[in-house]
Each structure stands twice: as structure tokens, then as C-alpha cells.
Amino acid sequence: MDRIILKGMSFYGYHGAFEAENELGQIFLVDLELYLDLSEAGETDDLEKTVHYGEVFELVKEIMEGKPVQLIEHLAERIAKQVFSHYNRVLETKVKITKNNPPIPGHYEGVGIEIVRKR
């Protein structure tokens, strides 16, 4: 299946289970893949036959920079649901959210989650 990829979207938010995360905030990285048939868009050069990734970015931004929640799993579910509710062409979506600097001890590039949802 074809896909649209939005990789490395960066947002500052106050999400997390720890008080420090809610007070100080942090950067969240979001990767999003939308699975759909892009053949008609490719043949016709018609924006209406695909998904406008600028609009998708704004949808993700609204969630990630919006009301704080405890779990990035919840943010990912909200993103997947919003994508499906706004874009009927999307049959499957993969959402990955990474925290580069969570307030936990250790050395790593980041911690995160990835979900895959099908319509």
C-alpha cells in the first residue's frame, strides 16, 4: 500500500506522568505514516485525490501542543482517531511519539511508543 510520511515533527508540550514534565515541558518528536492508495493522485495531479500533509501537520500540532495528558499512548490514539475522522482515504496509520529527554535516569537517545491502527 502507498503511504504519506511526516517524519520528525517537533512540538513542545507539557505531557507526562511526572510533575516535572507538566511544569517544565519538553520536546516531543512525532513520526506519522498514512497508508492509502495514491495512484489516482499520481495519475491526475489533483490534490483532492490525496491527503494534504500540511493540514495533517496542523492537526497533530493541535493535539501535541494542546491540553496536557499523562501518557503519550493517549496522544497517539488521539492523533490516529483524528486522522481517520478527517481523511476517509486513509486506511491505516502508524503513529510514533518520542521523548528525547524524559526525567528518568539513564543514557539513551529517547524513549517512546509506536501504534498502528487500521480503519
Automatic annotation (TrEMBL):
<dbReference type="GO" id="GO:0046656">
    <property type="term" value="P:folic acid biosynthetic process"/>
</dbReference>
<comment type="similarity">
    <text>Belongs to the DHNA family.</text>
</comment>
<keyword id="KW-0289">Folate biosynthesis</keyword>
<protein>
    <recommendedName>
        <fullName>7,8-dihydroneopterin aldolase</fullName>
        <ecNumber>4.1.2.25</ecNumber>
    </recommendedName>
</protein>
<dbReference type="InterPro" id="IPR006156">
    <property type="entry name" value="Dihydroneopterin_aldolase"/>
</dbReference>
<comment type="function">
    <text>Catalyzes the conversion of 7,8-dihydroneopterin to 6-hydroxymethyl-7,8-dihydropterin. Can also catalyze the epimerization of carbon 2' of dihydroneopterin to dihydromonapterin.</text>
</comment>
<dbReference type="Pfam" id="PF02152">
    <property type="entry name" value="FolB"/>
</dbReference>
<comment type="pathway">
    <text>Cofactor biosynthesis; tetrahydrofolate biosynthesis; 2-amino-4-hydroxy-6-hydroxymethyl-7,8-dihydropteridine diphosphate from 7,8-dihydroneopterin triphosphate: step 3/4.</text>
</comment>
<keyword id="KW-0456">Lyase</keyword>
<feature type="domain" description="Dihydroneopterin aldolase/epimerase">
    <location>
        <begin position="4"/>
        <end position="117"/>
    </location>
</feature>
<dbReference type="InterPro" id="IPR006157">
    <property type="entry name" value="FolB_dom"/>
</dbReference>
<dbReference type="GO" id="GO:0005737">
    <property type="term" value="C:cytoplasm"/>
</dbReference>
<dbReference type="GO" id="GO:0004150">
    <property type="term" value="F:dihydroneopterin aldolase activity"/>
</dbReference>
<dbReference type="GO" id="GO:0046654">
    <property type="term" value="P:tetrahydrofolate biosynthetic process"/>
</dbReference>
<dbReference type="InterPro" id="IPR043133">
    <property type="entry name" value="GTP-CH-I_C/QueF"/>
</dbReference>
<comment type="subunit">
    <text>Homooctamer. Four molecules assemble into a ring, and two rings come together to give a cylinder with a hole of at least 13 a diameter.</text>
</comment>
